[in-house]
User: Fold this.
Amino acid sequence: MLKEGDGRAFRQLVEDRQTMVYNTVLGMLQQPEDAEDVTQEVFLKVYESIRQFRGESALSTWLYRITVTSALEFLRKRRRKKRFAFVMSLFGDANEPLTDPPDFVHPGVKLDQRENARLLFQAVAQLPDNQKTAYTLHKVEGLSYQEAADVMGTTVSAIESLLHRARLNLRKTLENSFPDGL
Amino acid sequence: MQQNTSQQIDDILDSLNGLAPASPAPFLHTRIVARLQREQSSPGYIVLRWLSRPAVAIGLSALLLLMNGYVLFIDSRPSVPTALEENSMAMVQEYDINFTSAYEPLADEAP
Assistant:
């Protein structure tokens, strides 16, 4: 029904999967307004390309792939804008803000963990894109290694390796943030 | 102290355990439909949609290939001098005016 462009089926899909898409995007972008914008884009892409979905993978895997790709595209665009703003600021023409978004705290974090989660998300933002994706899918979305591997089109051992390196990098970043101890 | 720091970093790394998923603001579907209608009515979208039709895309590609082939065919033909070019060549030879620069000395002016 969804493939036939049925409006009710599309509404059902949005209602069923909006939390999954938004939560993943929010974990990667760490900015609620941008996450909302990218979530809308994801569903627009789904609406446009649902006929290309051949059912070889689960609908959720296909949806996660579109979500991750859209979030990464947004992050790259944001980095390009930031670089451009930096170059323009050298010429004394800085219209775009150079500052990073304010500290992010995921709304689903337990109250007693808010400060720790804030520090962790700051470190996650510095991870390379593939480690950030694997970490978000596993730790924020709660996907298994196998599910994360299906979404990223790789093997379980590659996901294990990415997560191991992500954890090492996070530890290093956190240690450097507090050279004199916490 | 070192052990304490390490333990605190472990606590930070474990702070996402039991994370509840975040949901978008209500009425997401309504906002998506509004955005879809806005985008579908923009001229850029209509042109792109028309260009992305298989018949149009294949037709335009074929036309482009034909034009390229035609240009290649024209270039590869040996050039046959026209009547005007033949007359000009004959005149150049008859009056010996085949020097290329106004500053080139004529044969009888040479030192």
